[in-house]
């Protein structure tokens, strides 16, 4: 292996000096969130679980979104490699809690080691991963270099780098090339991510333009009792939803809804903010328009005289999508980058979106091509689109059918990803019975 550039050597020398400060900060945060001291010390590389026998594949994801996105991939790899064990690491208490609820077979969770020599080496000495898959933009130099040095092939899956990150790496081309040179495979979300990695010195033979990992995640769970309760409360009233909305978007959605009420006086809007803790402010905003609302966080369902249902809770999104035939996806009227369109598509919702979907460009392209999604830019365009779907049921049926077709491609995409990873990382299925365990 080529000698590490000066910047990497400097980083290796400085991180032990910064470790006490970093440890103080992360341990306090984890403790405040109810994590035990023993588990918090996993961030120092001190394992709280034994290493299982046989081959172990390590996945590292930064936080909630990345962790949940990778669980279905772990499940699929587990089916392909039935004698292989899995480890998933993350850095936040919330991600650990959610992973524990959805843990795939033969998998366990630990908090990731801080990127300093002692924690990383302690972690690797204990777990001895046979392959490592980092998710999205987790480019921690020591974690990467030390893992590769021990012979574990590395992949960066669902790879994407922010413009700021790319700009930073470009200032140090030798360091960027050295760090990226440790990977056997880059499986990117889209062509833009692939181009960024190539511009930073990634080996073109190792860069594969793939799909957004979130498109392979399992469908959201729905609660049958909640679905039935909402359907009964609506009593046959038409419904549309605006999901994952941000500040500055709710005003536009409410303006569109007011226009729609002129033609559809019994129409109900289900407003699902991205951050439910904004519920009180949004409720005040709705009241200021003169529209009546029901608020889910208060245990309410929409009554006959309530034009807006504010769904300001967590964990019920699948139930809401199961009822809503039309869903506008937020984070797209403002330059935020959009949010996951796969989740409502799983339920066959006709999709509307604003123009700002840079985080899901590769996903919206086929949705537009199939006729499953429609772009809208402001309140009048939203109102026109929803009105069209309400008054022309054949248009709504066609869009919903196209959305289901898009969602049905999930398993084929996942199988393709498993095959690509297995080839690049030399992961073979188990040997025939009696021939011993599967090996890397």
Feature tags:
single chain; 440 residues; Rossmann fold; seven-stranded parallel β-sheet; 14 strands; elongated; glycosyltransferase; Glycos_transf_N_sf; transferase; Kdotransferase; Kdo transferase activity
Query: By CATH's scheme, which homologous superfamily of the largest domain applies?
Result: 3-Deoxy-D-manno-octulosonic-acid transferase, N-terminal domain
Query: Strand order across the biggest sheet?
Result: 3-2-1-4-5-6-7
Range of helix content: 40-55%
Q: Estimate the global geometry from the Cα principal axes.
A: elongated
Tally of helical segments: 18
The CATH architecture category of the largest domain equals 3-Layer(aba) Sandwich
Q: How many structural domains in the coordinates?
A: 2
Structural class: alpha/beta
* The level-1 CATH class of the largest domain: Alpha Beta
* Uncertain parts: 432-440
Note the gap between the termini.
21 Å
Average pLDDT rating: 92
Subcellular location: Cell membrane
Family: Belongs to the glycosyltransferase group 1 family.
Protein name: 3-deoxy-D-manno-octulosonic acid transferase
Domain 3-deoxy-D-manno-octulosonic-acid transferase N-terminal: 39-215
